[in-house]
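Here is the promised in-class demo. Please do not try to memorize the tokens; focus on the logic of going from shape to residues.
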């Protein structure tokens, strides 16, 4: 059977078409800059790459074009990435009218992400009304976090009224690499203490104890936790109140500062891309770039220590995401001086690993360290197959 995976962003559509259960990718691609005159569609179909400059006015036009290329008659189901499921969705679900209404209720929790996710769902419903759809939520994998870890020390009434709590994101990535890591090592997933590091322009970590997430670094929004490309991560709320007063910032301006002007970009004043920052720090001796990298390493290292303490030990440490998979020196800097936790890195091996699966720990290291390229789309395809074809609805 063919399962189409859709990931609709505010001005983009990413897709992969899988032949299941082989998990063979028939086609993959991305439409970027939807609504702009210079929109571009990059895709591969039957191993032949294509690049077209086509103006797509909206998501519906883009999805219609994708379906035309893929031969929609052969598609058995569609799986959608949905960023926020709130407390309503603790697992993937078959989409119906009730599910659509509940996803709409979560828009306030993810105003930039859930609306385009819904556009994809509603467009498929219109264009392929007989094809079943499944929603896979970024937040679902983190729903095992206990209340003492997901609650904020704010008035409880505000939690009850507005559902203010930690939800976490990148759930499909953390799910995939943690389970894949155990497959590689031939270990039982439900008996391991695992820390997963999804390091990209957006970044988060998760602590997974015996098959269940017990904590994750992102919070109610993706602003909490690690330092990211344009997001500051953990920040004193009092400092933000102070800034609002001194800089005369309203909520909209503060939101822009925190989501688009902070993080690596804010500290370096060069770029949000770590490749540019590495070049400035290591080749040009730029002090602000060096500072940003030290801050970046330190925050991740601190979370590794905290999560090891929370789980009372650590068996597996995994790196994934654009930075985690492709930046050996950054991994090495993060892993320095963690021997006391049983983390011993094979430095020479680590240097060779870029964008492929491998262990990078020394022989005899108590903690196994892995690099695993993430595959969120495969998780979505597998969840869609499981929900629709292996579970009685």
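The designed amino acids, position by position:
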């Amino acid at each position: 059977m063919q399962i189409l995976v859709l990931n609709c962003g505010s001005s983009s559509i990413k897709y992969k078409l899988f032949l299941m259960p082989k998990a063979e990718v028939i086609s993959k691609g991305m439409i970027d800059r939807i609504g702009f005159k210079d929109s571009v569609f990059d895709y591969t179909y039957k191993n032949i790459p294509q690049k077209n400059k086509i103006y797509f006015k909206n998501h519906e036009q883009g999805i219609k074009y994708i379906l035309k290329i893929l031969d929609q008659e052969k598609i058995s189901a569609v799986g959608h990435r949905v960023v926020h499921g709130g407390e309503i969705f603790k697992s993937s679900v078959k989409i119906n009218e009730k599910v659509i209404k509940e996803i709409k209720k979560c828009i306030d929790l993810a105003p930039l992400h859930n609306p385009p996710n819904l556009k994809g769902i509603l467009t498929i419903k219109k264009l392929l009304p007989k094809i079943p759809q499944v929603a896979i939520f970024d937040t679902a994998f983190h729903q095992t976090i206990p209340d003492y870890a997901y609650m904020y020390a704010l008035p409880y009434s505000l939690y009850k009224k507005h559902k203010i709590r930690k939800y976490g994101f990148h759930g499909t990535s953390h799910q995939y690499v943690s389970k894949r890591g155990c497959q590689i090592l031939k270990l039982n997933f439900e008996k391991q203490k695992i820390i997963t590091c999804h390091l990209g322009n957006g970044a988060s970590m998760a602590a997974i104890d015996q098959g269940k997430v017990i904590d994750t670094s992102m919070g109610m929004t993706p602003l909490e936790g690690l330092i990211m490309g344009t997001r500051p991560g953990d920040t004193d709320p009092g400092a933000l109140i102070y800034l609002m007063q001194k800089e005369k910032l309203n909520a909209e301006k503060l939101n822009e500062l925190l989501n688009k002007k902070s993080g690596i970009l804010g500290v370096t004043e060069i770029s949000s891309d770590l490749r540019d920052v590495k070049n400035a720090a290591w080749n040009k001796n730029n002090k602000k770039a060096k500072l940003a990298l030290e801050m970046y390493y330190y925050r991740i290292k601190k979370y590794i220590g905290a999560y090891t303490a929370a789980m009372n030990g650590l068996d597996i440490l995994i790196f994934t995401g654009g930075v985690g998979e492709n930046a050996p020196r950054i991994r090495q800097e993060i892993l320095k001086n963690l021997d006391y936790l049983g983390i011993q890195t094979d430095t020479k091996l680590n240097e060779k690993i870029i964008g492929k699966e491998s262990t990078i720990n020394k022989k005899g290291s108590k903690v196994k360290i892995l690099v695993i390229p993430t595959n969120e789309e495969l998780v979505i395809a597998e969840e869609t197959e499981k929900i629709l074809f292996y579970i009685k609805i």
